[in-house]
Amino acid sequence: MDASYADIRRGILERGFGRIAIEGSIGVGKTSLARLIVKRLGGRMVEDRVDDNPFLERFYEDAGAYAFQTQLVFLMNRYKQQLQLNQHDLFADLVVFDYVFARDRIFANVNLGDDELALYERVASELEAKVTAPDLAIYLQASGQVLFDRIQARGRDYERPLSRDYLEVLNDAFNHFFFNYSAGPLLVVNTDAMDFVNDERHFVDLLTRLTEPVVNTEFYVPSWEER
């Protein structure tokens, strides 16, 4: 590991941020950022297994008919994944998630009708109480247009039906959730003009910010904008 990254890793752990969850709407880049952090700093990545949901493609084709099944499979898959984290993983010095457990609840509030949502909430509340919250959550934001462009660029066939209107609704739901987030420290990062994968300056600047305190909810300001 490069010496500068070793220093950053040490600083992050000294802040107590051993379990970091990266979250945001579809196409915002949370998995890419999580993978890059683990690649540069080491540690364990816990990745949301989106492709394991057999109802997902059918949901994009007919949301009304398949929303409830899709949400329940996501909920149970994520819960099972959390339970499978053994004692070593739970207390590893650095674990990076590309989702928060409540992600599914955000989508459920957008996609489900009142009766289905009431039933879903009963199940989700029971499970969520048994899941450990991250030491730090990073909420990646982007405009609906930027999300739409990124989704089209990555070219997943089952995502092509996603409209900009739907992405705007999701954005509102994510903003509502995270602007009321109280499970721990939260860093909000606007990614419209950021490219963590292809611009090392962007990536290192964000990592360096994680070595500093994050109290309640704070908004990331790139160092070059502070001048």
Characteristics:
227 residues; alpha/beta; six-stranded parallel β-sheet; globular
In a nutshell, what does this entry contain?
This protein is 52% helix and 11% strand.
Topology:
Blueprint: H1 3-14, E1 19-24, H2 30-41, E2 44-46, H3 56-61, H4 63-83, H5 87-90, E3 95-97, H6 103-111, H7 114-128, E4 136-141, H8 144-154, H9 164-178, E5 186-190, H10 200-209, E6 217-219, H11 223-226
Parallel strand pairs: 1-3, 1-4, 2-3, 4-5, 5-6
Helix pairs in contact: 4-6, 4-7, 6-9, 8-9
Plain-language structure description:
The chain is α/β, with parallel strands linked by helices. Helix content is 52%, strand content 11%. It has helices spanning 3-14, 30-41, 56-61, 63-83, 87-90, 103-111, 114-128, 144-154, 164-178, 200-209, 223-226; strands at residues 19-24, 44-46, 95-97, 136-141, 186-190, 217-219. It has a 6-stranded parallel β-sheet with strand order 2-3-1-4-5-6. Helix 4 (63-83) packs parallel to helix 7, helix 6 packs across helix 9 and helix 8 crosses helix 9. The longest helix is centred in the N-terminal third of the chain and has 21 residues, at 63-83. It starts with a helix and ends with a helix.
